[in-house]
């Protein structure tokens, strides 16, 4: 599949993949600009909280790049599902 095929916006799956990748950007930016994010990791009980926050940011950066450019999309989507499921469970716990 060529790069032009991966960014063909007439294909609904490409649009969905790109939108999902772009939705990770606010998550990633919020990790470094909102001071309350670290408090969330502390309140939920992640130990050490800063390390988990940076690991989460690393995963989100990886997912943003892989989903946006269509690199191993299926595996990136599975990792994104797991990552966001853990985040939802942590939010539910809080």
Describe the structure.
The protein is mainly alpha-helical. Helix content is 82%, strand content 0%. Helix 2 runs antiparallel to helix 4 and helix 4 packs antiparallel against helix 5. The longest helix has 22 residues, at 12-33. The chain starts with a helix and ends with a helix.
Task: Sum this structure up briefly.
The protein is built from five helices and no strands. By secondary structure, it is an all-alpha fold.
Assess the beta-strand content as a share of residues.
Answer: under 5%
Radius of gyration: 15 Å
As a percent range, the share of helical residues equals over 70%
The coarse silhouette is: elongated
In N-to-C order, the SSE pattern is HHHHH
Main beta-sheet strand count, sense and barrel state: none
- Average pLDDT, rounded to a whole number, is 92
Distance between the amino and carboxyl termini: 43 Å
Structural class: mainly alpha
Number of helices: 5
Q: Would you count the extended β strands for me?
A: 0
Uncertain runs are: none
List its salient traits.
94 residues, mainly alpha, elongated
